[in-house]
Backbone:
């Protein structure tokens, strides 16, 4: 059974990576062709320098996702390693967000010129917001573990479950806390 799940993950990762590479190739070719053929007056050295610098994070992320997610096979064709789950939450999800947003910025820069690159400034703001919400929720969780400010506390300062409340209401054994 576990081999079946590994094969499914390998097939899903392969499809995701192939689709990402195709989209990336198409978007980058679109930028280069539009800058060289149609908007050739704006195809300056600064334009291509911005393109390389601001597309580099997407290329690095794409390389990293390829490295961790591409399944490897033994010489006889058996699955050796299925790769990491590319649909995982957390850092992988953030990397996909950065990749998608960078692709959008490349398309915007293709159509609007260098002003489209200003959209790229949203990525650090988004990262800061994610960090703030992540550490804020961790801080609340740690405060709850320490017994401070947890929601739904009873009048005596200790949170009780529904089962404990029902037992106390029926006159059963009262839960004692140390």
Residues:
């Amino acid at each position: 059974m576990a081999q079946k799940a590994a094969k499914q993950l390998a097939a899903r990762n392969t499809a995701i990576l192939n689709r990402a590479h195709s989209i990336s190739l198409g978007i980058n070719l679109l930028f280069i062709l539009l800058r060289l053929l149609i908007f050739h007056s704006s195809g300056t050295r600064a334009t291509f320098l911005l393109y390389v610098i601001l597309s580099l994070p997407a290329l690095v992320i794409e390389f990293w996702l390829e490295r961790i997610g591409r399944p490897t096979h033994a010489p006889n064709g058996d699955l050796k390693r299925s790769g990491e789950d590319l649909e995982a939450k957390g850092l992988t999800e953030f990397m996909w967000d950065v990749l998608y947003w960078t692709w959008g910025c490349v398309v915007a820069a293709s159509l609007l010129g260098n002003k489209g690159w200003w959209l790229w400034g949203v990525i650090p703001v988004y990262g800061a917001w994610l960090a703030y919400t992540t550490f804020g929720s961790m801080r609340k969780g740690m405060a709850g573990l320490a017994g401070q400010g947890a929601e739904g506390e009873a009048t005596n300062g200790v949170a009780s479950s529904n089962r404990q409340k029902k037992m106390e209401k029926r006159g059963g054994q009262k839960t004692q806390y140390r």
